[in-house]
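R.M. (postdoc): so does anyone remember the format we settled on? I'll just put the structure tokens first.
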């Protein structure tokens, strides 16, 4: 697969490309034009993010592998719970704990989506997830997504989204 046929997270701002659903599935953004949707679908396929949920058991019946879909479901549930607590009583300590939980959980885009209405938290996530702030995909003052992505090192075929 060629770079011109896929989206790269830090060069094409894949945050805009995908919608993360509570059931762990990822769908392509409805706002995408046909060419962008093809790039997004190619990216999902290349990374295996479009695979159905499955579990792998060892000879004793114990689960030994968790697929990405169920991991996204868990991350979504964790982020939703954190948001509920945040809405009850937001403060600096709780915000720091939530950011640390997000880092431990991963799935940056899920956390950004769940906390979409809270710019201060989005800015914290952007600053906390390694290299995200430097990507130029987000306004670091407002937490808003920037498009097209800055593609700061002028990677060929970067900045498509």
């Amino acid at each position: 697969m060629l770079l011109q046929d896929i989206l790269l997270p830090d060069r094409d701002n894949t945050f805009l490309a995908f919608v993360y659903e509570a059931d762990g599935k990822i769908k392509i953004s409805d706002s995408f034009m046909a060419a962008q949707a093809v790039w997004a679908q190619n990216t999902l396929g290349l990374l295996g993010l479009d695979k159905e949920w499955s579990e792998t058991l060892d000879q004793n019946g114990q689960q030994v592998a968790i697929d990405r879909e169920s991991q996204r479901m868990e991350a979504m549930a964790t982020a939703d719970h954190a948001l509920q607590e945040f809405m009850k009583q937001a403060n600096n300590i709780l915000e720091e704990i939530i950011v640390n939980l997000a880092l431990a959980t991963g799935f940056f885009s899920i956390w950004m989506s769940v906390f979409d209405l809270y710019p201060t938290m989005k800015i914290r996530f952007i600053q906390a997830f390694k290299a995200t702030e430097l990507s130029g995909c987000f306004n670091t003052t407002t937490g808003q997504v920037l498009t097209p992505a800055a593609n700061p090192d002028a990677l060929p075929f970067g900045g498509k989204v």
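R.M.: ...and that's the designed sequence above, right after the tokens. Also worth knowing: The longest helix spans residues 68-88. The chain is about 45% helix and 10% strand.
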